[in-house]
Amino acid sequence: MRKENWESYNTVFIGYPIWWGDAPRIIQTFLESYDFADKSVFTFSTSGSSPGSAAFNALEAAYPGINLLGNLHFTSSSLDEASERCTEWVNAIFA
Ligand SMILES: Cc1cc2nc3c(=O)[nH]c(=O)nc-3n(C[C@H](O)[C@H](O)[C@H](O)COP(=O)(O)O)c2cc1C
Q1: Cys staple from 18: which of 27, 47, 51, 88, with CB 3.0 to 4.6 Å?
Q2: Per-residue pLDDT, 24
Q3: What is the CATH number of the domain that holds 50?
Q4: Residue 4 covered by a domain
Q5: Whose CA is nearest to atom 23 of ligand 1?
Q6: DSSP letter, residue 2
Q7: Could you tell me the CA-to-CA distances from 24 to 20, 21, 32, 51 in Å, in that order?
Q8: 50: Cβ below 6 Å to ligand 1?
Q9: Ligand 1 atom with the shortest distance to the CA of 45
Q10: Is residue 14 part of a domain?
């Protein structure tokens, strides 16, 4: 099912688990299925222990036309900080 009122969103947050060091393929399908022109896109990711930077860098490299502005990553050992870090991150984005 396609997202309704896609045009009315300026900022899009996309979350995914890290699979084999990367974003799951369905995330790329999503990025290829919608028009991201004029949108600010932030991602957030979770993993057992891998960093999120390689997956985010790969998305940036694959989609230079999409305004990918940052990624917030949590490993399973940093979940205790998730609520606080999410709040700070979102507040900083919309400050
Ligand atoms: C197919 C698969 C591949 C995964 N690959 C990695 C990996 O490369 N590095 C890592 O730290 N965690 C890996 N994980 C763990 C997931 O990142 C972790 O389960 C997920 O972030 C937590 O979300 P969930 O509760 O939806 O599973 C993998 C999990 C699956 C199922």
Answers
A1: 47
A2: 98
A3: 3.40.50.360
A4: no
A5: 17
A6: P
A7: 8, 9, 13, 15
A8: yes
A9: 21
A10: yes
